[in-house]
Design goal:
Number of strands of chain B: 7
Low-confidence stretches of chain A: 1-22
Strand order of the largest sheet of chain A: 1-2
Shape of chain A: extended
Structural class of chain B: alpha/beta
Number of strands of chain A: 3
Protein name (chain B): 39S ribosomal protein L13, mitochondrial
Distance between the termini of chain A: 51 Å
GO cellular component, one term (chain A): mitochondrial small ribosomal subunit
Bound molecules: zinc ion
Largest sheet of chain A: 2 strands, antiparallel
Radius of gyration of chain A: 22 Å
Pfam families (chain A): Ribosomal_S18
Strand content of chain B: 15-25%
GO molecular function (chain A): small ribosomal subunit rRNA binding; structural constituent of ribosome
Oligomer: heterodimer
Keywords (chain A): Ribonucleoprotein, Ribosomal protein
Largest sheet of chain B: 4 strands, parallel
Number of helices of chain B: 8
Strand content of chain A: 5-15%
Order of helices and strands of chain B: HEHEEHEEHHHEHEH
Chain lengths: 173, 175
């Protein structure tokens, strides 16, 4: 295991099996950050050494819903569920570990749903339901917040206002 | 009178003690439900002159929930009667001083202002937390259903067991 690799937390990442290559090339320092996306395999067949790097399937692959592969609009539209701001395990998939939204090029959401999810994540954060997904310096316990922020608050999803150009599309949806 | 009829009459005219858990409940929406039980309007033989109201014990009034930005927008007015004696208190300031007052005021104002109102209010017992004195706890025999579901706070293992909604790019590494 290289020195540079050991400072990162591996729990969230795809499996670690990049060590074989570092031993083979006698190299312990990487110039680029290792992402553990590929598994390096060495296969010897009749004096022929084949080194192949296969992409490892993500650990969440087996929990993937069938609707996620639907290409009609986006994952949330094809899910067909009225999402509320209290559905935090669902909203948590759209945010990073510090609570900020993943961009549309990664989630693949349409503009309408991206905006809606963004507002609902903000609602869940204000209600203190997603305090484990916050920046490390933030007050995790909502009871420690100042003034009115320390009291329980709930939100109405029908108050989410989308820009005018989005509204025409929502009628079709 | 038959034995069954006698028991039925006892049940009809006995004062039932209801429990209401105000955790994550809107006090103004729950007030309408609480008043119904306080005045006895849930009974088929309700009459305003009949003393048929029940007792409602409310717990966790400290943990009520308001909609949106109501904590800093809702204002409670009070006037001492002297010149310059008017004061406006925001809902969160009032709740800091007295964790039961917002609910009590909500129930009080949800009833019609007549001579009966003060007597009906005496049947309402509010506690800021879930600690109830033993002599009141023994009387409780019924529970009023909560209007809103208490939301669950996200836990780390919940994220890893929930079905995935969308497919991440192959080369994406979560941070
Ligand atoms: Zn869509």
């Amino acid at each position: 295991m290289s020195l540079l690799n050991s400072f990162r937390n591996h729990n969230n990442f795809r499996n670690i099996l990049a060590t074989a290559s570092s031993l083979f090339f006698k190299r312990n320092i990487f110039l680029s950050q290792s992402l553990y996306l590929k598994e390096v395999k060495e296969v010897k067949i009749n004096n022929q050494l084949i080194i192949e790097a296969n992409i490892i399937p993500a650990p969440e692959e087996d929990r993937l819903l069938k609707t996620a592969l639907n290409t009609e609009c986006c994952a949330v539209c094809s899910l067909g569920v009225d999402i509320k701001h209290t559905d935090v395990p669902l909203l948590a998939q759209f945010v990073r570990s510090d609570g900020c939204m993943l961009p549309r090029r990664i989630t693949g959401l349409c503009k309408i749903q991206h905006k809606r999810i963004t507002y609902m994540v903000a609602m869940a954060q204000k209600a203190g339901l997603m305090s484990i997904l916050t920046p490390p310096d933030s007050k995790k316990d909502p009871k420690r917040r100042p003034k009115w922020k320390k009291f329980n608050t709930y939100f109405d999803e029908s108050t989410i206002q989308l820009p005018k150009e989005y509204k025409i599309k929502i009628k079709d949806f | 009178m038959s034995a069954l009829g006698r028991v039925r009459q006892w049940n009809a005219f006995s004062q039932v003690w209801h429990l209401f858990d105000a955790k994550w409940q809107n006090p103004f929406q729950s007030a309408a439900v609480i008043t119904k039980y306080l005045m006895g309007k849930h009974k088929p033989f309700y009459h305003p002159f009949a003393n048929c109201g029940d007792v409602v014990v409310v717990i966790n009034s400290r943990h009520i929930a308001l909609l949106g930005d109501e904590w800093k927008k809702r204002v409670y007015f009070h006037h001492t009667g002297y010149p310059g004696g008017a004061s406006w208190t925001l809902a969160w300031e009032l709740h800091e001083k007295s964790p039961t007052m917002i609910l009590e005021k909500a129930v009080y104002s949800s009833m019609k202002g007549n001579l009966q109102r003060r007597h009906t209010m005496k049947r309402l017992i509010i506690y800021p937390d879930d600690i109830i004195p033993e002599d009141i706890h023994t009387n409780i025999s019924s529970q009023i259903k909560q209007l809103r579901k208490v939301p669950k706070v996200l836990e780390s293992d919940e994220v890893n067991n929930f079905p995935r909604i969308f497919k991440l790019p192959v080369d994406y590494v979560p941070s």
